[in-house]
Amino acid sequence: MARYAEQVELESKPLRVGIAGLGTVGAALIRIIASDANAISRKLGRDIVISAVSARSRSRDRGVDISGINWIDDPVALARSPEVDLFVELMGGEDGPALASVTAALERGCPVVTANKALLARHGVALARLAEENDTQLGFEAAVAGGIPVIKTLREGLGSATVTRVYGIMNGTCNYILTRMGAEGIGFEECLRDAQALGYAETDPTFDVEGYDTAHKLAILASLCFGTEIAADQVFVEGISRITQADIRVAADLGYKIKLLGMARKSDQGIEQRVHPTLVRKTTAIAGVDGVLNAVALETNHVQELLLAGPGAGGDATAASVLSDILDVARDTWVPPLGVPAAELKPCERAPMRVHEGGYYIRLNARDVPGALAAIATRMGESNISLESVIQRPDLRAVEPGVDAESTRTVVLITHETIESAVREALTRVAGDGFIVGQPQLIRIEEF
Ligand code: NAP
């Protein structure tokens, strides 16, 4: 009875939200809370009000009306304010004010919602533990794949099913670049410039195009999938900056698209977490996810494959996920932040990349001399690599630094399933023979 009375009293009061960070996501959140006020109130039986906000510049026009909202300069003071029932962190950064303010809120038992994957990837386990110790909640739906409800699906939607593998496209910038390279025959640099002009890529795009952003998100997902600690520093990472038109065209002729995938699975060797460009058959569902869209596939023992696709970024989509976490807090639906209590998470034992098994696409700039191709094939055979096809493309001339297009020819080898260490060993020997110029291009093939 007491619990029911407490609930009624709780529900008659508005939930007072404090927001630190009023950029793309923060401003969109304020807009959506205002525009959806009636729907929120109907669904919850109580209102959500924004009681205080914080950002660096008080005078900046953010395109939303914050005139009636209390302004607190220091995000940590905002997190500690007694006027705030729920703290929303939308500043970004893995340490600094984001970590300090989220910690301050959790320490006083105030629930937190954040979209900050960098913070979660680095401090997620400690923050989950802190939330549990203080009997409060930590929501981070927006931190992985923006508007796609993948965290909720993993935490609550799959019941007792065991996830066997997770993979997906988790960076819209990379997917946009690879999609345009494939559709329009233009180079990586040109696509990147367009992505920057359109606001899809940062001025310094390293974090996105070299795969680190995907690695952060994958590490968070892997923890939820396998009940292990978040281990972003154990993800094997390769980005897309070395993908050329030659790769895109040869892959297309063979029936593949190239996607930057994040993939994690549990094997006898440990937890395999990898992010790299991948050849996927054009007929698969993941290959159809183009442009800035994201998709996450979950393979489980009960439902086989579940594919969730949608907008992975953008103010409105991300803010909608933040709001969905806020509604969960308002309803007082508590689940451990990482799916199981933090104390029960197992250490993440890393499966070494050299034991990865699969098919490989290998593009070489072979010297145009007699015997080069035969020598390369011999070296592959010596490492027990069986070749599915050998493709010579005189029409695709190398455009890589230090490679003379006139005296080399582009050779692509497609291997049958083999072990990564064997491929690396064979390529070292091929390079030692002096028949190739420049760095070989190695892209893993994934059959789904
Ligand atoms: P943003 O546009 O750069 O906005 C950051 C906001 O934080 C700004 O309002 C900034 O203030 C404020 N801020 C920065 N340092 C601060 C400090 N020391 N004290 C107080 N305020 C501070 O970033 P965003 O794109 O909205 O991203 C926010 C978070 O959401 C990040 O963790 C990001 O990874 C995540 N996220 C973003 C997207 C997306 O599509 N944008 C998608 C998924 C997740 P000023 O405005 O005054 O400079």
Describe the structure.
This protein has about 450 residues and is α/β, with parallel strands linked by helices. It has helices at about 1-10, 25-35, 35-45, 75-80, 95-105, 115-135, 150-155, 170-185, 190-195, 205-210, 210-225, 245-255, 315-330, 370-380, 420-435; strands at about 15-20, 50-55, 70, 85-90, 110-115, 140, 165-170, 235, 255-265, 270-280, 295-300, 305-310, 355-365, 385-395, 410-415, 420, 435-445. The strands form two sheets. Strands 7, 8, 9, 10, 11, 12, 13, 14, 15, 16 and 17 form an eleven-stranded mixed beta sheet that branches. Strands 3-2-1-4-5-6 form a six-stranded parallel beta sheet, with helices on both faces. The protein starts with a helix and ends with a strand. The protein has 15 helices and 17 strands. It folds into three domains: about 1-145, NAD(P)-binding Rossmann-like Domain (Rossmann fold, 3-Layer(aba) Sandwich), CATH 3.40.50.720; about 150-310, Dihydrodipicolinate Reductase, domain 2; about 355-445, ACT domain (Alpha-Beta Plaits, 2-Layer Sandwich). NADP nicotinamide-adenine-dinucleotide phosphate (NAP) binds near residues 25, 92, 115, 117 and 318. NADP nicotinamide-adenine-dinucleotide phosphate binds near residues 90 and 91.
Task: List the ions, cofactors and other small molecules found in this model.
Answer: NADP nicotinamide-adenine-dinucleotide phosphate
Distance between the termini: 53 Å
* CATH architectural arrangement of the largest domain: 2-Layer Sandwich
In total, the number of strands is 17
